[in-house]
Amino acid sequence: MKTLIVYAHPEPKSLNGSLKDLAVSTLESVGHEVRVSDLYAMNWKAVVDAADYGPDASSPLKVPLDSGRAFDAGTLTPDVLAEQRKLLWADTVIFQFPLWWYTMPAILKGWVDRVFTYRFAYGVGEHSDTKYGERFGEGTLAGRKALLSVTVGGPESHYSARGINGPIEDLLFPIHHGILYYPGIEALPPFVLYSVDRMTVEDYADVAKAWEQRLLTLESTEPIPFRPQNFGDYEIPSLHLKEGLEPTGRAGFGLHLRR
């Protein structure tokens, strides 16, 4: 297995840093290849601008079209090209980050904004009466799996079905479905640690054991069963789920799960 770890935390001695290091050592110990994109250590530029597209930037800037033109021409900046090559190399991607303000840190979102360019992560495939491009289960990155390893400050009860913050599955849906599954990556159920602000050194032993077990079962873990876009569940071009396919009583994001 070839694994890319995209790590987003400013403190190397943090819990996130320890989880990242443990992932590297655990996977390498059983023969897997691992590469790490440590975004803070890389001083990753988190904002999209015309400099990303060099001579292919238009005025006024048109981010989707310009990014696609630069991708096709091979004129994207070297840092973006390097990350795209890592994604094509990997068959598994682990995103290690803290949940900040209900989502990923800005530097990680900036990695997505800059690396997932038009013609690379989206805007591929045919548009016809039966297909709406290759996305949501198809696309450039199809055949890969991804795991979100997320640390959360609050207790698990706050992120339950009746919790004030909403279910963690709903908070992560935009990442799982909209960032990963859109370009074809199958999202695995996340590894979430709660109440990390109250975690002690003694607690870490159990955390490390659970994380190692999860890492060693990545290859056998079933992905979240999202519905693919072009295989009959959705009307095209409206992309509405066909009537009668949802289980009784299911609504919201859960409509887009096959089971």
From TrEMBL:
<dbReference type="InterPro" id="IPR051545">
    <property type="entry name" value="NAD(P)H_dehydrogenase_qn"/>
</dbReference>
<feature type="domain" description="Flavodoxin-like fold">
    <location>
        <begin position="1"/>
        <end position="215"/>
    </location>
</feature>
<protein>
    <submittedName>
        <fullName>NAD(P)H-dependent oxidoreductase</fullName>
        <ecNumber>1.-.-.-</ecNumber>
        <ecNumber>1.6.99.-</ecNumber>
    </submittedName>
</protein>
<keyword id="KW-0560">Oxidoreductase</keyword>
<dbReference type="Pfam" id="PF02525">
    <property type="entry name" value="Flavodoxin_2"/>
</dbReference>
<dbReference type="InterPro" id="IPR029039">
    <property type="entry name" value="Flavoprotein-like_sf"/>
</dbReference>
<dbReference type="GO" id="GO:0016491">
    <property type="term" value="F:oxidoreductase activity"/>
</dbReference>
<comment type="similarity">
    <text>Belongs to the NAD(P)H dehydrogenase (quinone) family.</text>
</comment>
<dbReference type="InterPro" id="IPR003680">
    <property type="entry name" value="Flavodoxin_fold"/>
</dbReference>
